[in-house]
Amino acid sequence: MRGGKVAVVGGSIAGCAAALALRRGGADEVTVYERAAGRLADRGVGLAMHNARYAELELAGLVDASMPYHQVTRRRWYVRDDVVASGPLGRELAVLPFPFRTYNWGPLWRELRRRVPEAADFRHGSTVEAVEVTPEGAAVHADGHTDRYDVVIGADGYRSAVRAAVYPDVQPGYAGYLAWRGAYPSDRLRDPDLWAEDECVYVVFPGGHLVTYRIPDGAPGVHRVNWVLYTAPPPGLDQGLQTPTTLHPGTAGDGLRAHLAYVADELLPTFWGDVVRATTHDELFLQPLYDFTAPRYAVDRALLMGDAATVARPHTGAGAVKALQDATALQSALTSASTWPEALSAYDADRAPTGRIMVDLGRRLGRGLVQETPDWRSLDQAGLEAWWQRTDGTGAFGGTPRART
Length: 405
Ligand SMILES: Cc1cc2nc3c(=O)[nH]c(=O)nc-3n(C[C@H](O)[C@H](O)[C@H](O)COP(=O)(O)OP(=O)(O)OC[C@H]3O[C@@H](n4cnc5c(N)ncnc54)[C@H](O)[C@@H]3O)c2cc1C
Known about the structure:
CATH architecture of the domain at 5-43 and 106-171 and 292-368: 3-Layer(bba) Sandwich
Strand content: 25-35%
Bound molecules: flavin-adenine dinucleotide
Helix content: 25-40%
CATH superfamily of the domain at 5-43 and 106-171 and 292-368: FAD/NAD(P)-binding domain
CATH class of the domain at 5-43 and 106-171 and 292-368: Alpha Beta
Number of strands: 18
Order of helices and strands: EHEEHEEHEEEEEHEEEEHHEEEHEHHH
Distance between the termini: 16 Å
């Protein structure tokens, strides 16, 4: 099908990819509303993309090798062991393959933004206040105006206004624990040679784990250390975080910082504790974990993408991948359908099941890696491999495979 006037609410990963897919899929007019006035690229830390998912997205023309990345190949698992003198890294439990490219969120977004065709009307600093959706079209209220479209796409993240218009009762549910996150230049590492550049590291402890890997930082070969530590805070310290919210760098309160310091000092081996301690207050931020998935990805003339449609816990390693895959599915739906209802229904049939798979996977991994952790010290290479296979189950870690579009 060709033609049509489409509004995209949100101009982050999903929104930029949607604008590209819509133009390629033949939409006549595309308007992107992005609340942030600019400088989106200065925010964000690291994300990882499975090599196989990258290859599919590259074939689909959404990503390419000019987007700065760092190649990681293995995932080494450590645990602190006070009984065996195991050195600053801790005791190694296992090494598993980890074929992922890692990205710095800002430069990745900037590259996607650069690929949005000039013909799309990309409005930075434009907040959508409300959306109305009917079986024939959609009205978007923003900046004191109301504009009418054939279709509205919700690419406006986990607190989506578009989702609220079609699913007012679907709300992110608090997972019961937090992610403390940080990133900083890797020349701050005291003993970088102890940690191979192509290794992602999982440091496990009772009730949580630290994940850390390097991400690109400007010039080739220059990196930042990116880390995420998942655990439940002491009771009461997450008050106010149970309803969807984001805490920006530098805003973590004393109690939550003290808990992080306790984990770094008492539960992590010294090298990995140092990785956390090297982070300044301004580089540290908190991400309370939520998850949900919309029952359908398309309702009347509204279509949901990325985090607006589904948020799976980040243990799945697939948030950005899923958002980009949603765009490739949108493009295929547009090129194969002859009417909007057909295209929306094809998109929904393709993507809603993936949303459910990823949320289930995130919950299973959250249980295994945070909420009901095994006796880590009892696991060896074979034991950890078997545990991972049971916990991952579907093999959807890093995202579900997609056929060429
Ligand atoms: C600045 C920023 C930095 C991030 N950094 C990381 C990171 O380092 N690592 C990581 O794994 N993930 C990061 N994320 C999240 C990541 O992009 C998503 O989890 C995933 O890629 C899906 O993207 P999305 O586009 O669906 O949602 P988001 O990336 O959440 O984008 C939603 C967009 O919609 C806009 N928006 C929301 N409401 C409105 C409205 N009413 N009107 C207009 N615009 C609206 C927001 O400003 C935002 O740009 C970041 C997101 C943002 C916005």
